[in-house]
Amino acid sequence: MRITAIIFLFCVPSFASAQVLINEIQISPIGERFIELYNSGNSNIDLTGWYVQRKTATGSSFGSLVTSTQLNGKTIKANSYFLVSRNQLENSDIVIDNLTLTESNIVRIRDSKGEDVDQIEWATIDERKSYQRISSGEWTVAAPTPGAINATSGSSQNQNTNVGILLPSPVISANTTFPVEPQIFADAGASARTVSSGAPIVFTGRAFGLKKEPIENARMVWSFGDGGRAEGVSVAHTYYYPGDYVVVLDVASGYYSASDRATVRVSAPLVTLSVGGDQIRSFVKLENSGVDEIDLSDWQVVGNGKNFIFPKNTILSSRKTLTLASEVTGLATPVGSVVELRFPNGSSVSVKGVEKKELPVQGTPPQKVLEESKIKPTIQIQSAQTAPLDQKATIVDAFSDTQTSLPSQKGDGMWPWYIGAAFLSAFALLGIRLTKSKEDNAFIAVDDFEIIEEVEDNEPR
């Protein structure tokens, strides 16, 4: 149900001398809240010491909305916009996570001296619509135009005309001596953007006529700064190499033409992709190791025949990780799963995978592989003491018999032992033979001796 915005302006002293104006406000959805200021003067203004306050319908006093600390060192350029947003918009100057804007609020801006510069009040504003200043004392509810010229159509609300506010207009030098020619205006979108190499980026242009009205059928030609060119209101382009590029939009309508430019910084995405968990609960983890944040809007994670598409404004900050639970993605990605990261156009993103370590099978200990297996032969040698006592053999025969009784191991390192064993056996046999000979000599009979002659001791010999 559409709710018509009811707008009230306080009857405050004229701000005709003021250059900084509250130019546009959006309150819902919450993540898309913003306040847009505009400098209608011909010189830059230092916002150091300035602050913005807010008061609710039931509140008795103003509270802080944008502090002087947050505006410290900030400058709003001549005839330019200054955007304060809750989430990171393409051309935000300040991002405040707790930016609170609701229905029936009053917002005012004060300078470094604490003096009121501008103030507005509203009752309700439709969702995804913004409250926009379109002329002195007139506002409208229309599609939001953060950081750009406001629309000139919508639910216009006439307001107190005592507030001297001028519509933003081209700057004309005071010493101009020639008549001002009518002109149209081109808007290439955010003045500075960042994108990953290989990821498509969408450019949307707008054209405004002589009275600042949108031109629906203007011809728009884009030059992307890398040799690429396209024509159309909304075009997509892919930068394949990192660098800084200048994008130029040329607009033509009838006899009139205009141009605008923007800069695009292209960086190589340094993303590490890994998986974890089990069949019951798993996850996909992305890590950005680069120095630039990555806008993952409409990027895809594909695994096991299914894919998950990142919602718009999903940001992966520099040096940060993002873990996607299976309960959210609907993907089953346990350890060992193969997943792929893709750009919005479906092309693959070059990622660095986590090293996979093979785990040993439970119950099977790792086996050591031997480069060479050496087996030493075991030889049993019969001791010489076991030989029979009546064995008759010479030393040579004993040596010969022992040597031939041993197995021949050509080239084996045991041959010194074989020879030693043979000598021991031979000496043992020799000892047995000598012992037997002595025993035979010990039993010589008396009859074996013959007395040739018996001589007495007193006889001469």
From TrEMBL:
Positions of transmembrane segments: 415-434
Domain named LTD: residues: 14-124
Database matches in SMART domains: PKD (SM00089)
Keywords associated with the record: Membrane, Signal, Transmembrane, Transmembrane helix
Transit peptide in keyword set: no
InterPro entries documented for this protein: Ig-like_fold (IPR013783), Lamin_tail_dom (IPR001322), Lamin_tail_dom_sf (IPR036415), PKD/Chitinase_dom (IPR022409), PKD_dom (IPR000601), PKD_dom_sf (IPR035986)
PROSITE patterns: LTD (PS51841), PKD (PS50093)
Signal peptide positions (record): 1-18
Domain of life: Bacteria
Gene3D superfamilies: Immunoglobulins, Lamin Tail domain
PKD domain boundaries: 222-273
Name of the protein in its database record: PKD domain-containing protein
Organism of origin: Candidatus Nomurabacteria bacterium GW2011_GWC2_42_20
